[in-house]
């Protein structure tokens, strides 16, 4: 049998449908192809594959156009493999795997294509459709060729929408570069590949996908199984975020956190004292950093935690960060494994400042109690007492100083724990009870000063003034009392003194008013006298214009310096006003003059001559003439006449 016969026999016996195509038409077909695609009556010879297909494929592509593209590619020597929908002879449809390849012919005739059509396994397709993972095939140019229905269920896109675009367009922008870098490893000879990225859903969200891909280089395809790992990735990211938060909390907490094993060896620590390297601490025991005097305390705490699973608290003294003595409070808690305590967590807090503050507080309390005890005021603290009901009916003394005991007239020991209502002999106690009840009812402080009633048992005792200040405190009151009797007595004395002073002041004010009135009257009298003197002075120095150019000034009475000055001022003014050429001073009425007066008269004469007026003097008495001579005055300054009549001539 020749090779041709052998090939023909194999061609006829093949279970797959085999066809030979030339220019897209069937030129030969084996029996399996006839049964699958046409039936014995119709046959396949001369028919086109597009005629054996529906007008459109499930992805919406036109069958004729899609087949033409694949046949052209196969004719160029590019093998093609694709899923295709064909019509059955009975009118149904069949989904088949189709392969096209160019045959190498020795005679060099036109391209003959071999088509292998294999009907898909229905059971396999059902499994393919029901798969939870997303299955698919992609070409080497980055497009989906086939996708399982689970893609639609997971992403919301239809398979046709996914296959219509390069799958890289669906990848999250931040993951594209990494995905392309991963898939490039196929070019280095890798056959399988696993990677993760975020893939866009139809609603715009993204889901994390885990890809397991296998390269089929001979088919020019990549087969892949994809699993939605969004929940796992979300849980991982949440876990990482939680771990980051816990780590930040662990490292940022201000206390020292130590994790130790059952042998007290440190396996973890969040911080150490300055100068200590955390790495140098790991592996050493807690005892190495604890003073020997506290080893027994530490052992007891570790036993409590590791053996009984309880918690322990202890305090130790050690070295602080600056090398000084420091107090540390330690709280130990168990860390449990599956069935038992495996480690112990010790939280160490530096309480040095707190201990110092407590010591300062205790010292302050001692000083405060000493000040209270030495105070002249009385201090009491009392707790509310309820007799069966909800309301406060009485108060129990819980604390007081010596002054308070003295004011209540009892020993301090006898007063502690006693109710106010039981102190019957003290008038202070009865008043105080009423005021404290009022403070509790109103919930507001009270400050009053009252005069205590006289105790019935001591009628001769003088009444006393007391200042009360009552403040509500938790479940009770605090009372400050001060005996103000002496102050009140001094205030009364002061008030009486002030009243007397006010009376004296009022009397003095009346006398001052009378004196003011008298002074005012004196001022009025003096003013009248001054006016009269001015009038007399004006009358005593009259200036008479005898005729034009001649002024006469008769002077009567005593002539002193003041009057001489007045005469000069008045005479000079009249000389200027009247342009007089002569001024006659008549001294007939002048009895006596002194030296300064004569000097003033000479000055009057000289001043008049400076104004262009001659000064004539008449009526000079012997006394005036003698004074002029004795003073050595120059009488040539003016002309003298015995009588006024002579001067006027």
UniProtKB/TrEMBL annotation:
Keywords attached to this entry: Coiled coil, Phosphoprotein
Entry coiled-coil feature ranges: 487-525
Ranges for domain PAS: 120-176, 275-309
Pfam families linked to this entry: PAS_3, PAS_4, PAS_8, STAS
SUPFAM superfamilies: PYP-like sensor domain (PAS domain) (SSF55785), SpoIIaa-like (SSF52091)
Domain PAC: 310-363
STAS domain ranges (all copies): 540-649
Gene3D superfamilies from the UniProt entry: PAS domain (3.30.450.20), STAS domain (3.30.750.24)
UniProt key word Iron-sulfur: no
Keyword set includes Coiled coil: yes
Descriptive protein name: Fis family transcriptional regulator
């Amino acid at each position: 049998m020749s090779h041709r016969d052998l090939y023909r026999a194999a061609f006829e016996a093949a279970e797959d449908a085999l066809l030979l195509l030339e220019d897209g038409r069937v030129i030969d077909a084996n029996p399996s192809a006839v049964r699958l695609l046409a039936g014995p009556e119709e046959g396949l010879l001369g028919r086109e594959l597009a005629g054996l297909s529906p007008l459109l494929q499930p992805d919406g592509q036109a069958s004729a156009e899609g087949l033409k593209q694949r046949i052209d590619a196969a004719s160029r020597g590019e093998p093609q493999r694709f899923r295709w929908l064909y019509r059955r002879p009975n009118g149904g449809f069949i989904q088949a795997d189709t392969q096209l390849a160019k045959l190498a012919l020795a005679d060099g005739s036109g391209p003959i294509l071999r088509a292998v059509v294999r009907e898909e396994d229905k059971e396999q397709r059902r499994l393919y459709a029901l798969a939870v993972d997303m299955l698919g095939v992609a070409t080497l140019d980055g497009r989906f060729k086939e996708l399982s229905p689970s893609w639609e269920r997971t992403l919301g896109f239809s398979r046709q929408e996914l296959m219509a675009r390069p799958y890289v367009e669906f990848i999250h922008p931040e993951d594209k570069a990494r995905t392309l870098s991963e898939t490039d490893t196929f070019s280095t000879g890798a056959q399988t590949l696993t990677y993760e990225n975020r893939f866009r859903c139809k609603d715009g969200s993204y889901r994390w996908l885990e890809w397991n891909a296998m390269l089929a280089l001979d088919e020019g395809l990549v087969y892949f199984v994809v699993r939605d790992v969004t929940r796992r990735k979300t849980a991982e990211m949440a876990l990482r975020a939680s771990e980051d938060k816990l780590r930040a909390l662990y490292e940022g907490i201000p206390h020292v956190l130590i994790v130790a094993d059952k042998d007290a060896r440190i396996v973890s620590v969040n911080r150490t004292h300055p100068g200590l390297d955390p790495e140098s601490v790991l592996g050493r025991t807690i005892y190495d950093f604890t003073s020997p005097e506290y080893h027994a305390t530490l052992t007891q705490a570790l036993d409590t935690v590791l053996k009984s699973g309880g918690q322990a608290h202890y305090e130790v003294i050690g070295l602080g960060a600056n090398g000084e003595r420091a107090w540390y409070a330690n709280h130990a808690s168990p860390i449990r494994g599956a069935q038992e305590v495996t480690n112990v967590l010790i939280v160490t807090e530096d309480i040095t400042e707190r201990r110092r503050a407590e010591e300062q507080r205790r010292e302050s309390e001692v000083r405060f109690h000493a000040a209270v005890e030495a105070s002249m005021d009385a201090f009491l603290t009392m707790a509310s007492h309820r007799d069966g009901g909800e309301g406060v009916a009485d108060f129990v003394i819980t604390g007081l100083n010596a002054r308070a005991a003295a004011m209540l007239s009892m020993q301090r020991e006898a007063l502690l724990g006693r109710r106010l209502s039981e102190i019957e002999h003290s008038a202070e106690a009865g008043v105080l009870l009423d005021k404290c009840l009022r403070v509790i009812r109103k919930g507001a402080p009270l400050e009053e000063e009252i005069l205590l009633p006289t105790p019935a048992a001591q009628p001769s005792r003088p009444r006393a003034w007391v200042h009360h200040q009552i403040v509500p405190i938790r479940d009770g009151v605090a009372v400050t009392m001060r005996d103000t009797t002496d102050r009140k007595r001094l205030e009364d004395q002061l008030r009486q003194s002030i009243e007397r002073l006010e009376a004296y002041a009022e009397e003095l004010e009346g006398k001052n008013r009378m004196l003011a009135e008298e002074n005012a009257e004196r001022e009025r009298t003096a003013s009248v006298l001054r006016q009269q003197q001015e009038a007399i002075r004006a009358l005593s120095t009259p200036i008479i214009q005898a005729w034009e150019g001649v002024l006469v000034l008769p002077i009567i009475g005593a002539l002193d310096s003041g009057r001489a000055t007045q005469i000069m001022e008045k005479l000079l003014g009249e000389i200027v006003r009247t342009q007089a050429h002569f001024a006659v001073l008549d001294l007939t009425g002048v009895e006596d003059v002194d030296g300064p007066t004569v000097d003033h008269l000479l000055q009057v004469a000289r001043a008049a001559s400076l104004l262009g007026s001659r000064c004539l003097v008449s009526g000079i008495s012997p006394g005036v003439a003698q004074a002029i001579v004795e003073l050595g005055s120059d009488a040539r300054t003016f002309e003298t006449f015995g009588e006024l009549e002579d001067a006027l001539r």
